[in-house]
Specification:
By secondary structure, the chain is an alpha/beta fold. It has helices at residues 82-91, 109-122, 170-178, 183-192, 208-220, 237-254, 262-267, and strands at 28-35, 45-51, 97-101, 125-130, 144-147, 196-198, 229-230, 257-258. The protein has a single domain (3-267), classed as TIM Barrel, CATH 3.20.20. It contains 7 helices and 8 strands, in the order E-E-H-E-H-E-E-H-H-E-H-E-H-E-H. A 6-stranded mixed β-sheet has the order 1-2-3-4-5-6, with helices on one face. A two-stranded parallel ribbon has the order 7-8. The chain starts with 27 loop residues before the first strand and ends in a 6-residue tail after the last helix.
C-alpha cells in the first residue's frame, strides 16, 4: 500500500494490528516539525509525534516531574488523526525522520505498527522513545529505540503535589512501580528492532547511588558505553543550566556520551516545540 499517494480521507484497512480509520482521533496530543534535541540523532530535522497515556508517574526530586506530565500524571485526551500525520509530512517533504515520544508510545501497538508501515513506504527513519515497559513486534522493525528506563530516582514521594495540585497517594506509587523496570520486555525490544541507544536520566555527581543502579543495569543488559547517553534531570531551563556542567564533566571523565535537553534550554517549559 502506497501511503505517499494517500490523501486526507477516511482510509479503511482490513488488516489486524493496523489503524483502520484515518479520520479517527488517536491517542496523540502533538505533532510538529522540530530538530531532534536528545541522543544519538540530535540536531536532525524531524517530525515529533507525542502520544498520551503512560504506565509511569515519574518525579525526579529537584529535577521536577516528567517534562510531559500532561501525558502521564494528568493525561489529556488525544486530538490528532492519522490523516494529520500524512498532511504534516506532505507539508514538509524534506523531513525524513520521525520521533515518536510520549507518554508511553508502546501502550498503543496498532498506532506504532501503522507508523512503521508509513515510515517504511516513505523512506522515513523512525525513532521511538520508550521506557521499555512493553515489547511490540511491529511488521517493520523500528530504526532506533531510544531506551530510557526509569530507576529508583523516578519514584514519586508520598504526599507531594502533582503539577495540578493533586496529592500523591500510594496508588500512584504502585502504578509507577508496576512496570518501572521490565527487563524481559527491554531484552526483547533491543533484540528485535534495528538499533538502539540507552538514555538514562541522572546526575551521577549528586546521585551516586542511582548511578550505581544504572551501571548495574547497563552491564546486565550488555549495553556498551558508546551506546549510552547520559541525560541530566530537569523540567525547566534553570535546573538544567545548574546540572549541565556536572553531568558533562562526568561524561568526559568516564567515557560516556552526554545528551542535553536542548528543547528545554531553547524554549523552557513551552509545549509543542
Amino acid at each position: 500500500m502506497d501511503h505517499s499517494k494517500v490523501t486526507e480521507k477516511n482510509w479503511l484497512i482490513e488488516e489486524p494490528g493496523r489503524i483502520t480509520d484515518y479520520n479517527k482521533k488517536l491517542p496523540l496530543l502533538e505533532i510538529y516539525p522540530c530538530v531532534q534535541s536528545e541522543g544519538s540523532r540530535q540536531g536532525r530535522p524531524t517530525i515529533a509525534i507525542r502520544t498520551t497515556g503512560c504506565t509511569h508517574r515519574c518525579w525526579f526530586g529537584e529535577g521536577g516531574w516528567c517534562d510531559s506530565w500532561y501525558t502521564s500524571i494528568h493525561p489529556e485526551k488525544g486530538i490528532i488523526t492519522f490523516n494529520d500525520i500524512i498532511r504534516m509530512y506532505d507539508e514538509h517533504p524534506f523531513i525524513k525522520e520521525m520521533m515518536l515520544t510520549g507518554g508511553s508510545p508502546t501502550m498503543h501497538p496498532n498506532l506504532v505498527n501503522e507508523l512503521t508501515h508509513f515510515a517504511h513506504e516513505r523512506g522515513i527513519v523512525i525513532t521511538i522513545e520508550t521506557e521499555g515497559s512493553h515489547f511490540i513486534e511491529t511488521d517493520y522493525p523500528i530504526d532506533l529505540i531510544s531506551l530510557s528506563p526509569k530507576f529508583s530516582n523516578s519514584i514519586p514521594e508520598l504526599g507531594i503535589l502533582t503539577p495540578k495540585n493533586s496529592v500523591v497517594g500510594q496508588d500512584m506509587i504502585d502504578q509507577h512501580e508496576k512496570l518501572r523496570l521490565n527487563k524481559e520486555a527491554i531484552k526483547q525490544t533491543l533484540a528485535y528492532h534495528k538499533d538502539y541507544h540507552f538514555k538514562p536520566v541522572c546526575n551521577p555527581i549528586e546521585m551516586p547511588e542511582i548511578w550505581n543502579e544504572i551501571e548495574e543495569f547497563r552491564i546486565e543488559m550488555n549495553i556498551p558505553k558508546n551506546k549510552t547517553w547520559i541525560m541530566p534531570p530537569g523540567d525547566n531551563r534553570e535546573e538544567l543550566v545548574r546540572v549541565y556542567p556536572m553531568v558533562i564533566d562526568f561524561c568526559a571523565e568516564n567515557g560516556y556520551n552526554f545528551t542535553g535537553r536542548e528543547h528545554i534550554i531553547a524554549f523552557d517549559t513551552k509545549r509543542g516545540v
